[in-house]
Amino acid sequence: MEKSQTFWDKNAGRYDLFMRKDAAAYAQLYGLLRPAVRRKTALELATGTGLIAKNIVSSADHIEATDASAEMIAEARRDNRSTKLHFSVQDMFHLPYADESFDVIIVANALHIVPEPQNALSEIRRVLRNDGVLVAPTFTHADNSFFGRVKAFAMKLAGFPLHSRWTSEEYLAFLRENGWTVQKSTVLKASFPLTYAECAKQKEL
After folding, report:
1. Do 157 and 127 contact (CB within 8 A), yes or no?
2. Which of 47, 71, 88, 102 is most buried as measured by Cβ atoms within 10 A of its Cβ?
3. How many Å apart are CA 136 and CA 56, to the nearest integer?
4. Cα torsion through 6, 41, 33, 124, rounded to 10
5. 185-195 pLDDT, tens per residue?
6. Topology adopted by domain 2-201
7. Per residue in 18-64, pLDDT tens?
8. pTM for this one?
């Protein structure tokens, strides 16, 4: 994780500018997330500068928003005006929360950039309530055109920590294979296809 954390620390100050290209897709994403967190206690992993958390916190009872990058969290805290939103530096593979602490866990555009994402899902399973919801939107690079694949390759050369390249179908299968029932999914049009998934814990792994 140390190499990718350095990448995010270095790019924290320009992250919001970089994400403007996908503003329309993110507006759709917020619309999907607000009902999922309404009157719920939520945990967001890999929050970055807090773009998602800040846009949906008015619907939630409380959001804990975390990231492994201290610089990202510093950026997120700068303009946090909600008493219902708390930012902290945490490792998604080793969370400090008790079992079954949250109604909803959000991990957006992160599972494709961490090594061994199945281990992150295992830790998410631990801290999510048994009747809770995992919301895991992820860029599915392998769905994209030749131009998109070239762009992904260029990003990787620049140091972007891309570990998994799924199609949308492969990503949903990955979730199912690791203990989750996909209850809702859709693909949002963005710079890379953004596969939105809402999941419940499978009763038996």
Report:
1. no
2. 47
3. 15
4. 50
5. 999 998 888 99
6. Rossmann fold (3.40.50)
7. 556 788 999 999 999 999 999 999 999 999 999 999 999 999 999 99
8. 0.84
